Amino acid sequence: MESLTDPTQAQPPSRILPQLLLAHPQNWNVQERILLSLFPEQGGGHVLPQSTREMVFVDEANSFHFYALGEPTPERNSEDRDRDILLPKEPLTPEQEQLHTPHFSPSVFFSALDEFRDEEESNRASTWRIGDALLYGEVVTSTQSMLERFLRALPAPIVSLASDQTAGRGRGTHVWISYAGSMLVSVTLRVPVKDTASAASPDRFIVFIQYLFSIAVVDGCRAIDPSRKWSDRVKLRWPIDICGEFPSQDSSKKTELKKIGGIIVESNICDNIVDIIVGCGLNIRNPPDASLAALANHDTQDPPDLRVERVTAAILAAFERIWSSFLENEGLGFEPFLDRYKSDWVHSNQTVTLITKTTVRIKGITSEGLLRTVPLSSAQGNQYIDLQPDDNSFDVIEGLVRVEGR
To answer: How is this protein annotated for GO cellular component (predicted)?
Structure first.
């Protein structure tokens, strides 16, 4: 995801801090199950020994050193190939949160998950629920990259959260500049490839995950703001942008769109298993002119509780519902969600001029996940043109690179 404002205004720190492997207090054994997947030689019983100096997970790019919370850890910088993960023996106390996670409260996050979740989903989870397994770091290189290193070794779902990133990644070659008070989250998903005639191919459903998570962002905001004092002004810009509808400084128009977030989806298919990492950056409290707080505070004297922990939990709970429904009805593809997506996007009947100089009107999303348009010229009859973006955002018209006429 590209930077939202001048990156000189928000220089990320260079020191990488240890991450904590946490779990929902009511499902704390998830931590042990994750460690057993990484270190199966530990066998049964409690995995965490008195000293964890021999617990090192090595991949082709990094070495991950696991330490019991309280053990000394070395200082790391962004160029270091080693990373450190701390293992609390039990949920953090308020005092430990102040010491080890001063910018993020796991207890508030897990409590908010319970508040926003549907209990029906608990019976559908094959391992544990989205958010129950949490990898949190105050400063990391990238939440997306951290999960990518572990992708095949870790069970799913795992959520990676950070308060700051030194190398936040976006679509293609774009970077994401982190601001204090942002949601920086990635979540792993794992789906078996079904060998049935009715099952959708992996490519067919992977393309829709960015749209499903976009819907979850809007639904999460509305869970925070059920009266919709400001959440109805959270809009979607195809294919991956989250925008806010702000009062315009231009007297010729009432509102203007400002990007406040974006989504990235990466996948890997191996041995009939699809591993997916969904990443999302969302400006919640900063910057002052392009964030949820700016959107909410403009028209209200009573600003909502926009703590990063609560907004993140609301969005993850919404995505869990949407993802479960999508998988249960995968033969229908994106069709059951299309109206919900289009009700919050900014492209209804919008006209754009393509790089081919053809002026078209946007109509919707195809069953393959492309943007469907129809030419305005009557000379082209009943043809339609389906568009696929490259690494650029929709507002960069050169991003519409693949044209399929019918």
So the answer is: cytoplasm
Model confidence pLDDT, tens digit, residues 22-78: 999 999 999 999 999 988 876 555 555 555 566 888 877 788 899 999 888 888 876
- Sign of the four-CA dihedral 85, 89, 92, 97: negative
180 or 144, which is more confident: 144
For 112, phi then psi, to 5°, come to: -70, -35
Q: Does the domain spanning 19-342 belong to CATH 3.90.226.10?
A: no
CB 359 within 8 A of CB 352: yes
Tens digits of per-residue pLDDT, 110-156?
Answer: 999 999 998 776 665 567 999 999 999 998 878 888 788 787 888 99
DSSP summary character for residue 105: -
Render 280-335 in DSSP notation, one character per residue: EEEESS-STTSSHHHHHHSS-SS-----HHHHHHHHHHHHHHHHHHHHHTGGGTTH
Between 395 and 224, the more confident residue is 224
Helices within 127-201 (DSSP H only): 143-150
Burial of 315 (0-12, 13-18, 19+ CB in 10 A): buried
258 in helix, strand or coil? strand
Cα–Cα distance between 183 and 281 in angstroms, integer? 6
Alpha helices in 39-160 (DSSP H): 94-100, 106-116, 143-150
Q: Nearest-CA neighbor of 6 among 164, 240, 177?
A: 177
Calculate the alpha carbon distances from 34 to 28, 71, 224 in Å: 11, 20, 31
Q: For 278-308, how does the pLDDT look when each residue is reduced to its tens digit (9 = 90+)?
A: 999 999 998 888 999 999 886 555 566 899 9
Residue 217: predicted pLDDT:
98
3-class secondary-structure state, position 216: helix
pTM exceeds 0.85, yes or no:
yes
- What ranges do the domains of the chain cover? 19-342, 349-403
Q: Are strands 241-247 and 255-270 parallel, antiparallel or unpaired?
A: antiparallel
Is residue 229's pLDDT more than 80? yes
Sequence-distant (≥ 6) Cβ neighbours of residue 239 within 8 angstroms: 210, 211, 371, 389, 394
**Gap between the terminal Cα atoms of the chain:** 32
